[in-house]
Design goal:
- This protein has 88 residues and is mainly alpha-helical.
- A two-stranded antiparallel sheet has the order 1-2.
- The longest helix has 26 residues.
- The protein is 64% helix and 5% strand.
- It is elongated, with a radius of gyration of 20 Å.
- The chain has four helices and two strands; from the N terminus they run H-H-H-H-E-E.
- A hairpin with a 2-residue loop joins strand 1 and strand 2.
Length: 88
């Protein structure tokens, strides 16, 4: 069973992310979903976690769609005269 989950209390915040990314066993999912059915606080936490993941995925897609998006950091380092930890 997931080390961050205790039957007597609310799940650890990492468990919500693990649930969203399908990283839980079938047994853990059953227990977690059973808790979600009766706990409004955890329902809200799950909704916030899902919203955050969706925003991050959207931001990543938008960044990747920008011309030169993946090269932006290396270009700005070159403009500042920095390459890794060494100055040029």
């Amino acid at each position: 069973m997931h080390t961050k989950w205790r039957l007597c209390c609310h799940p650890d915040e990492d468990l919500f992310e693990d649930y969203c990314f399908d990283r839980l066993s079938e047994q853990e999912i059953a227990i977690f979903e059973g808790h979600l059915l009766i706990c409004r606080q955890c329902q809200k936490t799950l909704a916030c976690t899902e919203d955050y993941i969706a925003m991050m995925k959207g931001a990543s897609l938008a960044y990747a769609a920008c011309p030169g998006g993946s090269q932006r950091n290396s270009v700005s380092r070159e403009k500042r005269g920095i390459l890794g930890n060494k100055r040029l």
